[in-house]
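User: Run a structure prediction on this.
Assistant: Running it now.
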Amino acid sequence: MKKGVELESFITNNEVVKNILKGLNLTRNLYVSSIIVGEAHIGKRALVRSVFPNAKVIDGALTQELLRGIKEGVGELVIENFHKVKNPDMLHFENMRVVAIADYIPSMRDIDEKFAFIYNMPPLRERPEDVDLYIRYYMKRASEELSLDMENITIERAEVDISRNLASLRASVYRELLYRKSTVHDLQNALYHLFLCDGELEKGYRENLAIFEKAILKAGLGKYGSQLKLASILGINRNTLRKKINEYDIH
């Protein structure tokens, strides 16, 4: 996992991931080789570092550094990006404790021959219980890093993006919190830079008013749940409101 989304300590409520942790802990004092395979940004690195905090870490893409580390017999070694190792046949792990991390398996033969234990770590879309954990974790981080008051703020699972696992989840949590804590002044500044830099002004005055109108109507429907009530509050004709809802394709 990239450092930008790495967890300070590994957390999970998922049984499959708990079993991976259990397996690694059972072999933490043995000279055996293990590999964890799974999509990018699912927490593989943080998981391994939680069990082997003092192991030497080498990127599999750095062939000479990797060969030198193995030759020197570092004892306990974590190989990141094992899928980037150019020639796995060169690697021999005698009298070493090795844990490799891979986003995918380039060749099953290489894996079978090199590793005694092969673990498949599921992505976040298969770990809904962990999504809830990480939402709370990143909300706490945001509160500390951005000095945001989290009182009365909740973010639901359906409101976060897990398409890129922890990378997109973290970004969407921070984004949601900034949206909800934004003031009118913050929004005016954001719109100023939008219109200044992205060529939006060329669309014309009326077209740009749609940015505000759509947001107001969508928020009003979400808040009141009634077109009749929203039309009354906004002081517009109900038919006009319905026409605009259709025009902006608001659901």
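The two ends are 37 Å apart (CA to CA).
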